[in-house]
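Reopening this ticket.

The earlier resolution said the output was attached, but the attachment link was broken on my side. Pasting everything inline this time so it's all in one place.
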Amino acid sequence: MSDAMPFRRQELAPNLATLGFPSDRVTLGQLRRRQPTIFDQNSKFRIPAGSLEILATVHLENVVARRAFAAECNLADLFPNEDRRELIHLLDAEYRRYGISSGIHQTRQLLRELEAAARKQGREQSGPTI
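Inline output:
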């Protein structure tokens, strides 16, 4: 019998730092123009950086990537209450606002590419299926 620890499927997780997210295209200039108060150190109405609207977009993209990864690895969906169509429409609105997408078709394509990259990571981590 081997002393090696058994491989546990629960330890599988996407490496979000290496995935290309559509929101990676957003610049600091765009964020500054959209929420100038966060960046104005002299404003008496200063807002904490945690209030950046883009953080909600990043969260939604993470949900999309994690779901695709989990599906590829036959893991439980960590976000069973999140409707994919609703995620797409929410992201479409944000992508249009930031100039990432010109419409729903482009948004769907961007998210398909994100999902494909997350699934690829899942295949690489989970190994061959039997």
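Reporter confirms the inline version is readable. The CA atoms of residues 60 and 87 lie 7 Å apart. The chain has a mean pLDDT of 87.
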